């Protein structure tokens, strides 16, 4: 089959569908990281002692559900037959297991938990940045990634400020 003068394999995919393949892979990856983040915030809320930090972390967990839903919606636009993903990543599961083990061996304080949240958000921001560097993203994917990155960055700033406050208190 010829496409724009080039010979390509006839996979049965339309050119528009081929254009979404990379976007879908990136969106699936972001979705899985958002699932990890959602689970991580819920577990972090259980670890902290301060009620306002608990409330903030639970708010972040709820916001992650909304971000997951937005990624799911974009995936369905690109592929109406896309299946919902519940997963997360093995790395996220291992990180939460490490946190459980560490907490069982040492005292967990608010600053340590917030530091871990900040680290996780840093990783998520890095992934958004990697996705946004791609020049061939569809407009819907780029718009979604930019908006979600801005939300994550706002959360990082709030977490960082709180962590600094608790480092002074808990030192």
Verbal overview:
The protein has helices at 15-47, 51-78, 90-105, 110-132, 139-170; strands at 2-3, 6-7. The longest helix has 33 residues, at 15-47. The protein has five helices and two strands; from the N terminus they run E-E-H-H-H-H-H. The chain is mostly helical and 171 residues long. The termini are far apart. 77% of the residues lie in helices and 2% in strands. It has a two-stranded antiparallel ribbon.
Helix content: over 70%
Q: What is the first-to-last residue Cα distance?
A: 67 Å
Content-based structural category: mainly alpha
**Number of helical segments with 4 or more residues:** 5
Strand order of the largest sheet: 1-2
User: On the 0-100 scale, what is the average pLDDT?
Assistant: 79
User: Which parts are unreliable, with pLDDT below 50 for 5 consecutive residues or more?
Assistant: 1-18
Order of helices and strands: EEHHHHH
Query: Which strand-content bin applies to the residues?
Result: under 5%
Oligomer kind: single chain
- Radius of gyration in whole Å, from Cα? 19 Å
Described by the principal axes of the CA atoms, the overall outline is elongated
Largest β sheet strand count, sense and barrel closure: 2 strands, antiparallel
The beta-strand count equals: 2
Write the layout of secondary structure elements.
Blueprint: E1 2-3, E2 6-7, H1 15-47, H2 51-78, H3 90-105, H4 110-132, H5 139-170
Antiparallel strand pairs: 1-2
Helix pairs in contact: 1-2, 1-3, 1-4, 2-5, 4-5
Question: Keywords for this structure?
Answer:
mainly alpha, 2 strands, 171 residues
């Amino acid at each position: 089959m010829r496409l724009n003068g080039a010979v390509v394999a006839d996979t049965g995919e339309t050119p528009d569908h081929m254009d979404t393949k990379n976007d879908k892979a990136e969106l699936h990856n972001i979705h899985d990281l958002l699932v990890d983040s959602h689970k991580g915030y819920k577990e972090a809320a259980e670890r902290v002692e301060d009620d306002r930090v608990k409330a903030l972390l639970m708010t972040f967990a709820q916001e992650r559900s909304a971000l997951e839903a937005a990624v799911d919606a974009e995936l369905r636009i690109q592929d109406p037959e896309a299946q919902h993903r519940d997963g997360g990543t093995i790395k996220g599961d291992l990180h939460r297991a490490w946190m459980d083990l560490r907490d069982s061996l040492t005292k967990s304080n608010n600053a340590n938990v917030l530091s871990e949240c900040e680290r996780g958000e840093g990783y998520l921001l890095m992934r958004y940045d990697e996705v946004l560097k791609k020049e061939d993203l569809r407009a819907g994917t780029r718009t979604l990634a930019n908006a979600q990155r801005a939300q994550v960055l706002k959360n990082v700033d709030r977490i960082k400020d709180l962590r600094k406050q608790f480092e002074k208190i808990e030192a």
